[in-house]
Design brief:
It is built from 10 helices and no strands. The protein has about 210 residues and is mainly α. The chain is globular, with a radius of gyration of 17 Å. The N and C termini lie far apart (about 40 Å).
């Protein structure tokens, strides 16, 4: 029975994560964000292709689905390991959404949403550090990478000094690695000095990826 509860939590969380917030927000304005800028279904690309208010809505949607996934696992199973697996399933759903031909974003907002349901102070601290990086550099991707790199250390602190489950560290490592891997192109552009900054408009792509 417990196995079925775990599987149900993971499946529901994947579907929650697959909810294409950015795509739907763009469609409300008649824009398919996959055809603009990076083609990513994330807040930064919505900002460039649609505008700031749409980006805020998209990010809030992405945060909410990560948090909801953890709450579902808490209700169905009630163990830290189930909550972590649910959070990771939601991130995977966001990155590879079943509703938009397995396209998606890079999962930063959904990662922070799930993290907030696990331990609320952690994403607040990470988000503030990310905003500081954006304010200094104007690179959203650099802020995302900073969050990804620092998150495992935050989770390690929680495991060692706040009596949290070691599964929290697994969450931090796995989610952080996913973010870094999905930012491979951004890393290359950062090193080449060609990465787009906040405030630059996205250009229309030739085709939907």
């Amino acid at each position: 029975m417990i196995v079925l509860s775990y599987l149900a939590a993971i499946a529901i969380s994947y579907l929650l994560g697959s909810f294409p917030s950015s795509y739907l927000v763009g469609r409300l304005r008649g824009i398919d964000v996959r055809q603009w800028g990076s083609g990513s279904l994330g807040g930064t690309n919505v900002l460039r292709s649609v505008g700031p208010w749409a980006a805020i809505l998209a990010v809030l949607g992405d945060v909410a689905k990560g948090a909801l996934a953890v709450f579902v696992a808490r209700a169905l199973v009630g163990s830290p390991s189930a909550e972590v697996l649910a959070g990771l399933a939601a991130i995977l759903g966001h990155d590879l959404s079943i509703f938009v031909t397995f396209s998606g974003g890079r999962g930063v907002a959904t990662t922070l949403g799930a993290l907030g349901a696990l331990y609320l102070p952690a994403p607040i601290i990470l988000a503030l550090l990310g905003l500081a990086v954006i304010a200094f550099s104007r690179y959203a991707s650099l802020a995302s990478l900073t969050i990804a790199i620092l998150m495992p250390f935050v989770m390690l602190y929680l495991v060692l000094f706040a009596d949290k489950s070691v599964s929290y560290l697994i969450y931090g490592l796995t989610a952080g690695i996913l973010i870094v891997v999905l930012h491979k192109g951004n890393i290359q552009r950062l090193l080449a000095g060609t990465e787009r900054k906040i405030g630059e408009k996205g250009r229309r792509r030739e085709r939907v990826p």
